[in-house]
Request: fold
Amino acid sequence: MQAIVRAVQQRGSADEKTAAGGPKRGRRRGLNGGARVAAVISNRADAKGLDFARRQGIATQVLDHTAFATRDSFDEALAGAIDSHDPQGQPALVVLAGFMRILTPGFVAYYAGRLVNIHPSLLPAFAGLNTHQRAIDAGCKVSGATVHWVTAELDHGPILAQAEVPILPGDTPDTLGARVLAQEHLIYAQVIFELLQNK
Reply:
């Protein structure tokens, strides 16, 4: 059985169901027959995805980045934690969901071809933070979400899928973000399913 390990944080575009894998959606898509969410790991003990995962019987782990002297030492410990949740020490996928830390090039290289992220904009537009406000301020007519491979350059990995939503008159970051989030749930689950089918 292929293992999927998710890394989550308190804030970000992905909510707790996305963070923990949405097990009911996964069963409907047949993921549980050949894959499982092995663990949800966060650098913050108050991450909502941890609570949701616990309620679903998924292993959780907190690895506080402030306890590490360097970014490299944190990422090394994070990789060890991720790998410990797969019997072979090589999870099929590492899925980021609102994990708002920049990962080191060594970490990204170690998980190359297995590390995916979702970003709340139509990349390459609006990489980084505050995407919804930036899209509104720029006068864009549409926004959306992008699932992409993670590379050493922030939010610039090869795109796996995108979903578009309109920006409506009077939109705020919250109202736009809610519409984008609904699409994130759909495309992230679909991409994970397709990636696992090809492994």
